[in-house]
Amino acid sequence: MEVETKTYRGHNITIEYDESPFDPRKDDNLTEIHCMSTSQYNLGEVGHPNAEDFNLMLSEAHRQNDFVVKVFAYIHSGIALSLAPFHGRLAQGHAEFDSGCSGVIIIRRKKMLAEFGGKKWTKKLRQRAYDICEADIKTFQSYINGEVYGFIIDDDGESCWGFYSTEEAIDAAKESIDCTVQKDTKSHFEQMKIWIRSKVPLQYRETLGQALAV
């Protein structure tokens, strides 16, 4: 389904919904999203059958000094996820009835130190961990709401899918067009050198605009 279209450097960019998006939680993530399977907010790739099992996992994570942040969900005509409670941020009554803690997102201390170096948590490393958690939650929210997109250039040209915002898809399409234009421009000037050496009359030389079909 078409979402929007744009024109860039003489090329048409069509943004469409990704009808078969890849589940980002099946990727090799630094984070883990845990929830209780019995909760109405069963959102995450690691489900726990009951509160006891969930709390045991949580205690072990704290014992290992892993980075743990609560995840909150607001379900009302879609799903919103946040690392902060929705209370005080929504219309009166909505936070009390349509939102709550859905679980936690965790970055294991050993994985974080192996990825970014160091021997212990620092203030800077904890902030980086929080930023990673926030980005992963935002991506997961886009996925479960069906907000994953792709682009098609010039209807039947290059295409790519799996972007979690229309802005990302448009930026990627523009980069692709920039590369194509740059390559075509270089090719055109190489051809110009050949025409000049061969003394081809001007009326038979293709202009840059024609070469780029602008």
| Largest sheet, strands/sense/barrel | 5 strands, mixed
Query: Between the first and last Cα atoms, what is the distance in angstroms?
Result: 27 Å
Order of helices and strands: EEEEHEEHEHHEEHH
Instruction: Tell me the fraction of residues in β-strands, as a range.
Output: 25-35%
Q: Which spans have pLDDT < 50 for at least 5 consecutive residues?
A: 207-212
Number of domains: 2
- Order of strands, main sheet, comes to 4-3-7-5-6
Structural class: alpha+beta
How helical, in percent, are the residues? 25-40%
Computed over alpha carbons, the radius of gyration is 25 Å
The global form is: globular
Describe this protein's structure:
There is one protein chain. By secondary structure, the chain is of the alpha+beta class. The protein folds into two domains: 2-19 and 150-212, no CATH class; 24-144, no CATH class. Helices cover 40% and strands 26% of the residues. The chain has six helices and nine strands; from the N terminus they run E-E-E-E-H-E-E-H-E-H-H-E-E-H-H. The strands form two sheets. It has a five-stranded mixed sheet, with helices on both faces. Strands 1-2-8-9 form a four-stranded antiparallel sheet, with helices on one face. The chain starts with a strand and ends with a helix. Residues 207-212 have low confidence and may be disordered.
Summarize the topology.
Blueprint: E1 2-8, E2 11-17, E3 31-36, E4 46-48, H1 51-63, E5 67-75, E6 79-82, H2 94-98, E7 99-107, H3 109-116, H4 123-144, E8 149-153, E9 159-163, H5 166-197, H6 208-212
Parallel strand pairs: 3-4
Antiparallel strand pairs: 1-2, 2-8, 3-7, 5-6, 5-7, 8-9
